[in-house]
Amino acid sequence: MAFGFRRRNLTRVFIIISAAILIRLATSSTSSSSSKPHEIQGHGVLDFVHGSESVLDSRRYAFLQSRVGRDERGDLMSDIVRNGVDDYWERFQKPYIVGSDTAQMDSQSVVSSIETLLSLNGWVAAHCPTLIRPFGQNSHEHAFDDLLSKNHLYFVGIVIHSADHFLVDQLAVIVQLAKRFGASSLFVSMLDYDSSDSTATLTDLSEAVLTLLGIPYRIRRVPGMTADPAAAYYPAEEAYMRNLALEPLKELYERRKIKFYRVIWLKGFTCPNDILETIKVSDANDAAMVCGMDWAEHNGFFIFSDRWRTRDINGDQFRQSKSSSKPDAVPPRDRVGSSRYSQHLPFQVFCCESGTHVVDPAQSYYKGISYRAGTDFHNVSTTETLPERAPDAPCLDSSQAWFCRDLWLQKAREGVQEMDASNSVARRKRALEEEDVVKEEVVHRVPNDADPDANAGSDYDAMPDSDVPVEDLSTTTRLSIPNSLFRSARILVNPRCVTTYAGVSHTQLALDLFGAEGEDHGLRGAGRYVLDDWEGAPESFVCQEQRQTGGRKATKTQRRLGYSIHEDLQRYL
Questions:
Q1: Where are the beta strands (DSSP E) in 305-434?
Q2: Of residues 92 and 358, which shows the higher confidence score?
Q3: Distance (Å, whole) CA 292 – CA 358
Q4: Cα separation of 292 and 324, whole Å?
Q5: Which residues contact 278 (CB under 8 A, 6 or more apart)?
Q6: Three-class SS state of 139
Q7: What are the residues whose beta carbons fall under 8 Å from the beta carbon of 325, sequence distance 6 or more?
Q8: For residues 344 and 283, what is the distance between their CA atoms, to the nearest angstrom?
Q9: For residue 437, what pLDDT is reported?
Q10: What pLDDT does residue 169 have?
């Protein structure tokens, strides 16, 4: 009798303990690493049992909307603004709130006001519906229905450094994308990197808008890597900022198994339809990255700005690249690329960023690729004497250029691994020995003088037409497998996705690029999007590098470097 009583008590204790454990699992993260309130939490038991129609439901999961490092510094207007808010609340809002039953009505009123405010009625965005575009992408109401019907998830990344002049336009674009895809199909990661203008105030506005519309986000403010501008190495800062902006992407995958279909990097101002167009190009080509075109106003004309990061498939810079260039003087120098550009068609490149661009995380971030920079730069805050570097030393260029080369390397590695899986090591070794190719890699060098126009253009890297340097040629010979034998990284530029900046006439640029009629060259359907043939990486590329610290405007030099995927594979495999 006593034994049965004790057994019943033990059973009750066991049930109570089990229930407590289940409740704790259901209401807390399964990952102990999510101790910070802004971090993404792992799945609880109730997530699996109850489920949700949307994995990015910010109203169900509060951690999907977070603010980190808010700028609380006061200024001359802080008291005035605070008093005005308090007065508005006390006189106009508080008297009419009589209970929770009116809260939903008040919220809906605010949401409607936001949509009206940010419905592309004003700022640069007001011109988007009226801009000339080839293929009638603005005039066809259902041009993107097939894309919108797939219910993909999109990650929007924005890095801001004292760029308040287009943040409101970017917010308007995000609202429009949310209206097309649905609020729970987007996650917005907004990084304010040590801004000194009104960006802090505008991120407060962004936080309010995204919260009320139910769009998941993380808005984060971080200080500069160094307080001394002379010690700041911009490519390292650039890599640091982008990797921070991608942290929610990785947390959502590691802790909740949420995969995004594409990452949209917003830079400058780009119209919503242009972004949708670029996503469609990315989807049709299964591309690792598709970039728009980045234009700045320079000496009275529009010039392709981003030669700091963009190279055509021959590895050349986009020199003499005006929006009004004739068909025989177009930005890409390769024959296929120039032909496609003249028809406003996407063309293959070795590397790009050039404004707003779309990245496939399945081919990059989820493969372990992140942004990085060279490490052997010279710190001018310690000494002004620039050390000598070998002619074939690694290129100290932008973090995006490193990212492009990592994409090419990753694709080559995948091809080699697949070949290993289908062939024995011995057969592969014999094949490589039989196909040993002796090739001459021409290493063109340009004297390491300061680029006299390195700071022209919105991205500080445009160059006047007359300032093409004379190349000093030298050659080296070494054994290597040609880059053309390796699998191609699918990197494209979509010339119809135009990015502009403050003071640039988006309307006039569209007329320069596409003409008054927006001709379509008789192309329809997938033919205008899909590339049938993909080139291998070039055997050399123009290296525009920043060899020393000094921030974004530090001196850049140029040389042409040999490029060997085979040697990189030997180094990393």
A1: 311-312, 347-351, 357-359
A2: 358
A3: 9
A4: 17
A5: 290, 291, 292, 356, 357, 358, 494, 497
A6: coil
A7: 331
A8: 18
A9: 44
A10: 86
| 101: its two tokens | 């039953």
Which two three-digit tokens encode residue 283?
A: 């989807």
Supply the pLDDT for residue 34. 46
- Identity of the residue numbered 225: M
Residue 16 has a CB neighbour count (10 Å cut-off) of 10
Q: Which comes out higher in pLDDT, residue 392 or 251?
A: 251
* Token pair of 409 as six digits: 């390397």
Contact 244, 157 (CB under 8 A): no
pLDDT digits (tens, 9 = 90+) for 491-500: 999 998 998 8
CA–CA separation, 356 vs 170, rounded Å? 11
Query: Other C-beta atoms within 10 Å of 322: how many?
Result: 17
- Give the pLDDT mean for 538-544: 94
Q: CA 491 to CA 287: how far, in whole Å? A: 6
Residue 128 vs residues 112, 303, 457, 499, 503: alpha-carbon distances, Å? 21, 21, 23, 12, 16
Q: Residues near 408 by Cβ (< 8 Å), separated by ≥ 6?
A: 350, 486, 488, 489, 537, 565
Using CA atoms, how far residue 252 sits from 72, 184, 228, 358, 459, in Å, is: 28, 14, 35, 19, 32
467 vs 456: CA distance, rounded Å: 12
pTM: 0.83
Per-residue pLDDT, averaged over 34-38, amounts to 60
pLDDT-based confidence at residue 23 (cuts at 50, 70, 90): low
Q: What is the DSSP string of 396-408?
A: ---HHHHHHHHHH
Largest Cα–Cα distance of the chain, in whole Å?
A: 103
If we measure between CA atoms, which residue out of 568, 283, 234, 232 comes closest to residue 400? 234
Collapsed DSSP state (helix, strand, coil) of residue 79: helix
Structure tokens at 488: 């191609």
Look at the block and give the residue holding tokens 């999961």. 61
SS3 labels along 179-223: HHHCHHHEEEEEEEECCCCCHHHHHHHHHHHHHHHCCCEEEEEEC
- Going by C-alpha positions, the residue among 364, 380, 92 that lies closest to residue 242 is 364
CB 302 within 8 A of CB 509: yes
pLDDT-derived band at 508 (thresholds 50, 70, 90) equals: confident
Q: Is the distance from CB of 214 to CB of 184 less than 8 angstroms?
A: yes
In the chain, what are the domain boundaries?
378-403+436-487+536-572
CA angle centred on 389, ends 412 and 561, rounded to 5° = 35
